[in-house]
Amino acid sequence: MTLADYATFSQYAVASATVVLSLAFLAFVAELGFVRREARVLVGSDGEPLEPEAAEAPETRSDLLQRVGVALTAVAAAVLTVGVVTRGLAAERVPWGNMYEFGAAGVAIALVTFLILSVTSQVQWLGGVVAGFGLLVLGLSWTAYVPAGPLVPALHSYWLVIHVAAVMLAGGLFLLGAAASVLYIVKERAEQRGTVGPILRRLPVIGAMDRLAYRVHAVGFVLWTFGALIAGPIWAQYAWGRYWGWDPKEVWAFITWVVYACYLHARATAGWRGRRAALLALAGFATFLFSYYGVNIFVPGLHSYAK
């Protein structure tokens, strides 16, 4: 295959992955509809409700749709990974030199992380929100599509590979943490109002969602600290002769770090749990998205080549 063939194949693969992820999102949404329809109390021969362990629980349509959603997410992750790899082959470099490539690779990482956690920690309940966030990021990426090509001279450094790889891993974990935080807020508010329906009862207890969000954010924060505030300045010194210059991208990377640092500090020292912590985590994710998309598009700076 020629470089042009790799580029064309990559474009079709990323587009196909976007379509498959859309189908996965629809499967997760349909699952919720069937959960509501299937909600009922199993009654024994004596007319009393059966305990969950005493009742036979055959696979329902909602269970099937959840498995379909996870399977489609796995297909989307595989196809998207192929698209990212072939994009790198087409450009003859690492495939994260601009916003389009960063978004595609970041979503692939987030989907793979979700699939791993689905096996190890049974987090399939995150599927709909993860797929939705993934589609949002892919949509933003497509708006900034550029043909595969060489990097500008400032990017010819292995520190770029380290810097962006760590940031993408952190972004994937921030996405999962934001998904858990959104669902926490929804269920916690419903519990306060006494309106927890069958859909929300399908979610874990809010404490479990709060702990999951904290754990993935803690790991993501370490990666962000290394990638954005250690590897990034080292690369900036190589590229521009200074470690820090208050470029808009650098400023917003630091703002993101501050918000997530406040989140972790508030949990560890002030005992913040629940809604306040979840809202702070979502504020951090909003700054991350603005750093990824808003700065590149609306704020000119030294990182404008990343469009």
From TrEMBL:
Coiled coil: none
Principal location: membrane
Transmembrane feature ranges: 12-35, 68-90, 102-119, 126-146, 158-186, 212-231, 251-270, 277-299
Alphabetical list of Pfam families matching this protein: Cytochrom_C_asm
Cytochrome c assembly protein domain segment(s): 96-303
One CC-aspect GO term: plasma membrane
An individual GO BP term: cytochrome complex assembly
Cell compartment(s), UniProt: Membrane
MF terms in GO: heme binding
Membrane topology summary: Multi-pass membrane protein
Keyword entries, A-Z: Cytochrome c-type biogenesis, Membrane, Transmembrane, Transmembrane helix
InterPro entries listed in its UniProt record: Cyt_c_assembly, Cyt_c_biogenesis_CcsA, Cyt_c_biogenesis_CcsA/CcmC
Protein name, per record: Cytochrome c-type biogenesis protein CcsB
